[in-house]
Amino acid sequence: MNTFEISEALYALPGGVVEARRRPIFKPMALALVGVVLLIINTVAIDSSMEALSMLLLVAGVGLAGYGIVVSAMRLVSDERVPYHTPSKRYMCYSERYYDRSQLEALQSALKRGDEDALASIPTSNISAITLVCYRSKDGSIVAYALYHYVDMEYCMIGDVYIKQ
Q1: Are 130 and 107 a contacting pair, CB within 8 Å?
Q2: Residue range 68-79, pLDDT digits in tens
Q3: 129-141 pLDDT, tens per residue?
Q4: Are residues 99 and 157 in the same domain?
């Protein structure tokens, strides 16, 4: 889903509270390193009579190393930036909730009022006819909402971005 509009609205907040940053590379690299260590342990320390343990270490090591290397490479090559909340020094949490088209008016009125309890009380759906995208800081000081609907093989934003500080 293209969340460009909601991200740009967050970056435009006064005082540089939210800025665009690349995700760090050290977590996937640590996973790759753990995978390599498991493969080394499998090669050096495991006896050939322990076939089940050897296979477990092999599969876990290859899986972790492969995942870590692929994600690290993607983050190095990509220029993707995500919202970072500078006062709490953490990346903002992204979430999506799906609703039926009949809930659109209730969603819009709850967003205009900034009523999070009303948003939580609206029944969700498994079908993404209407999608509520939310970026929330870890401490809850900034919350940004945007409504999207699925039209002609893409998600289009409905209305404006709602930011609650």
Answers
A1: yes
A2: 999 999 999 988
A3: 889 999 998 888 8
A4: yes
